[in-house]
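no rush on this but wanted to send it before i forget. what follows is a protein written twice so to speak, once as letters and once as C-alpha cells for the fold. mainly i need to know what kind of three dimensional shape the backbone takes. thanks a lot i owe you, the record is right below.
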Amino acid sequence: MEQLRRAGTPRLLVVDGDGQPPDATADCLEDWIRAPASDVDVATRIEALRRRGQRHAARPTLDADGLCRFRDSWVSLSPVERSLAAALVERYGAVVSREVLGARAWPDAMPTRNALDVHMLRLRRRLAELGLEVRTIRARGYLLQETDAGRADQVGAAR
C-alpha cells in the first residue's frame, strides 16, 4: 500500500462488511467502500478516484541523497543537478527563472550562461527517464512537467 501511495496511484480499499473503516486520510487518491458492494458502486468510486488522480497528478520528490522519484521510478542526480531539480520540483508546473536556478546551484557566484545550459541539458536527460520534461520558457526560465506520454500512460493505467 505504501508503495502505491508513494507512486501517486489511486487506491480503493474494500473493507469487510463488519470491519473497522480505515482512518480518514488527507490523501485525495485514497477512498474506501464496504463489502459487499454493488458493481455500480465500485465502478463509481473507481471513476471518481481516476478523475481525482488526473486533477492531483503525482509530483516528483527529491531526497537528501540526490534521488529524484516520480511515480514508481527514480534517478540519481549529481549535487548540481539536485540543486537545480530542487528549485524546479518546489515550483512544479510553474516557471523558475535562470537567476533562481543559478543562485540555488551556485550560491556564491552566478554561473555563466553556458554552464547553466550544460547542466540543464544533463538534468533534462536524467529526468526524461522518469517521464518528466524541463521546458524552456523563452525569456522567463524553465518549467518542470510530466511528459505527454507519461500522462497518457497514467490515464490508461487508471482505466
Notes: The chain has two domains: 2-56, 61-152. The CA atoms of residues 45 and 114 lie 51 Å apart. The longest helix spans residues 39-55. Residues 155-159 have pLDDT under 50 and may be disordered.
